[in-house]
Write a structure and sequence with these properties.
The chain has 323 residues and is an alpha/beta fold. Helix content is 46%, strand content 20%. It contains eleven helices and ten strands. Strands 1, 2, 3, 4, 5, 6, 7, 8, 9 and 10 form a ten-stranded mixed beta sheet that branches. It starts with a helix and ends in a 5-residue tail after the last helix. Belongs to the UPF0065 (bug) family.
Length: 323
């Protein structure tokens, strides 16, 4: 009888300790892997979320920049981390669902090696030209000119195979035109060349182009997302202009290694969604030219899986590859 009582007591203590360990999360600092250098859109959002979590729920969330190979190095590191909830990563569409089809071996499968936790924001993609360009007042002007002179018009992007580049290819195919892609190593060089008139157009994220648009130096022609940008509400969508098959934007969100306890995933999602419901957080995201977006882990995971399959065909059709 005594032995049975002791066994029961030990079991009860173990269960209680396990329950206490679960409810104590997090009981040490959380590393937020940022797969890009400081200062970019992903870094800004990651630091914003880290700061607000630290302030609102007193978690210690420490950003850790692990840049390289288009953001794939940081994602691969997160995928290989222990599934304890103490190593999360701010991923985005380019490195989560496009890169696996571009690179020969990125070292991770986003649908198998990582679990989608919480979407944070999405960024519309915009087609712009220099404000002093006399030829292109509207997107219709671009289409008319491109049909008259195939391959004579150039458009820049932040790099070959990026979501932004491929958004340009999708629009080109939807409009039935031929315009020539000029890849750059980042947004700034492309912006400088379109402002200087060295290229005709640029396809860009809204945050990258917003400052020059507001300064009156760039003329926005259309956004490729399904909805207009709240930062530029007067700019039409490509779909509104008649190209219904164009719906491209870039999302950002938090991921944890596969196998992370479901309770941790739920807890992180709940706290991030609370932040996104707040006016201060929404204003901070809008200031970057992005749109706040909250989803459940299940809904965000479904988005990632759908995009992963969708972009396989898009990348294949574009012919873009990276060694």
């Amino acid at each position: 009888m005594i032995r049975k009582f002791l066994s029961f007591s030990l079991l009860a203590l173990a269960l209680a300790a396990g329950a206490q360990a679960q409810t104590a999360y997090p009981n040490r600092p959380i590393r937020m892997i940022v797969p890009f250098p400081p200062g970019g859109g992903t870094d800004i959002l990651a630091r914003l979320v880290s700061q607000k979590l630290t302030e609102s729920v007193k978690w210690t969330v420490v950003p850790d920049n692990r840049a390289g190979a288009g953001g794939t190095i940081g994602i691969a590191e997160a995928a290989k981390a222990q599934p304890t909830g103490y190593d999360m990563v701010m991923g985005q569409k380019d490195n989560m669902v496009v890169a696996p089809w571009l690179y020969k071996n990125v070292g991770y499968d986003p649908t198998r090696d990582l679990v989608a936790v919480a979407e944070v924001a999405y960024t519309p993609i915009i087609i712009v030209t220099a404000a002093n360009n006399p030829r292109f007042k509207t997107l219709g002007d671009v289409v008319t000119a491109a049909k008259a002179q195939p391959d004579a018009i150039t458009f820049g992007s932040p790099g070959n195979g990026t979501t932004i580049h491929l958004a340009g290819e999708i629009f080109k195919n939807a409009a039935g035109i031929k315009i020539r892609h000029v890849p750059y190593k980042g947004s700034n060089p492309a912006l400088m060349d379109v402002l200087a008139g060295n290229i005709d157009l640029m396809v860009s994220s809204v945050p990258s182009a917003l400052g020059q648009i507001k300064a009156g130096k760039l003329r926005p022609l259309a956004v490729t997302s399904a909805k207009r940008s709240s930062s530029l509400p007067d700019v039409p969508t490509v779909a509104e202009l008649g190209y219904k098959d164009v719906d491209v934007s870039t999302w950002y969100g938090l991921f944890l290694p596969a196998g992370t306890p479901a309770a941790v995933v739920t807890q992180v999602n709940r706290e991030v969604n609370k932040l996104l419901a707040g006016k201060e957080m929404q204003a901070a995201i809008h200031e970057q030219g992005a749109e706040p977006e909250a989803r459940s882990p299940e809904a965000f995971g479904a988005l990632v899986k759908a995009d992963y399959l969708k972009w396989k065909d898009i990348v294949k059709t574009s012919g873009a590859t990276i060694e």
